[in-house]
Amino acid sequence: MDIDEIVPSDHQENHNGSSNDYEVTYNSNEHNQYEYPKLFNSKTLLELCYSSSPSLKSKGDVQPYLRGCKWSPDGTCCLSVVNNDGVHVTELPRDLYSGSVDSKRKIDVLDPVIHVKESGLIYDFCWYPGMNSTIPESCCWITTRQNAPIQMWDAFDGSLRCSYRGFNAVDEMEPAISVTFNNEGNRIIGGYKNVLRTFDVERPGRDYAEHKINSPASCFATSGNLLAVGSWNTTISLFNVNEMGNYKSIGKMHGHTGGVTHAKFTPDGLKLVSGSRKDHRLLIWDIRYYRTPLNVLSRAVDTNQRVYFDISPCGKYLVSGGTDGLVKVWDANKVNWHSSLDVTDENKYNVTYIFPLHKDCCNSVSIHPCRPILATGSGQYHFKDPLAITSDEKIDEIEKNQDTKECINDIKYSDEAENSLVFWWTGDIDL
């Protein structure tokens, strides 16, 4: 099936109730398969669009920094979670649905078309895997947040569709730590402190099946019947899930030094990539021989915050952000990150490209499902300098004390608060 082009209609109307979002023209040739475009050929990125959260000073101690972004499965919009500001849906401009990009293209400043103001910390979020803008009932996402059940939201008007509630042994509702759909999209899997709960999408409420686990489920990755469950105890558990929703344990993978925060399978389902908090390593696992990591890649993670990475649909490119603001790219054609390298040398330079895109922590990246476009999100919590509330005279006196000055330099207070969602063109550029 060859995708020729994406023909957009009036997108804003669709979020006001129209059922047609865009049309996709296909060539029904079984022998021709869609070839994913080559990325990073020009070794540079062109900024396309920019969307910024409220500034750090506008709300005082409430800091609305970005905490994750994910492209919709059909590629028409990007879902992002903003700390203390809920969920935003930002649409891709229509001129980027097809064709190439000129180097003189003006940067679009985007406003979210949907803003769901959720109170409390959002633990995890996930698009419905069969989301298609031409089918309104398929346009939804789910979230799990502090002191709330798993909730499904409508992607057209931001309304709450339904909730899926899990209860503990004393019949108290408890929030899920992580959440995901299965590949077919007919079940929702919620990860809790000591149990996995499986909900039928068509039966919201408190009807679910349980499978006990030994440690909290901090993140999920799915591929076919396989389910990888990351945990705060630094392990990853592999399960085989049958059609009835029963879990069969395959084994555990050990190698991280911190709690696992993100994991994802490669498109062929044979490799698993995982990352953890305060751990500078991305581990590559072969699920057929999962006892030890197959490869180790390096990135900067100096925080407990979840730092996302992504794998392109073609399986060649692995992209990750970092707390240093850098975006690192591993191209399988130039750096064979799929297989083992000489990881005994810690100084071995095994990254293909490095892009300094953000001044603040780049905590999330998402590769567009069919276009050479990369979405990145930046932001983190910034501690305020206590000297900012003192008078200028007191500051001058403190600066004269060399010992105190060295102490201040050790405490990293940063004014580089960059809370933004940016779309970048990663394909060839027309000069």
- Give the overall shape: globular
Low-pLDDT windows of residues? 1-32, 389-395, 400-412
Please identify which CATH superfamily we are dealing with.
YVTN repeat-like/Quinoprotein amine dehydrogenase
Number of helices: 3
Radius of gyration, whole Å: 22 Å
Assign the structural class, choosing from mainly alpha, mainly beta, alpha/beta, alpha+beta, or little secondary structure.
mainly beta
Largest sheet: 5 strands, mixed
Q: What value does the average pLDDT take?
A: 83
Q: Any idea what the CATH architecture is? A: 7 Propeller
Distance separating the two termini: 31 Å
Helix share bin = under 10%
What name does the CATH topology carry?
A: Methylamine Dehydrogenase, Chain H
Strand order of the largest sheet: 8-3-34-33-32
Whole-number total of structural domains: 1
CATH class: Mainly Beta
Overview of the structural elements:
The protein has 431 residues and is mainly beta. The protein has a single domain, classed as Methylamine Dehydrogenase, Chain H (7 Propeller). Helix content is 5%, strand content 41%. It has a five-stranded mixed β-sheet, with no helix packed on it. Residues 1-32, 389-395 and 400-412 have low confidence and may be disordered. Residues 1-25 are annotated as: Disordered. This is WD repeat-containing protein 79.
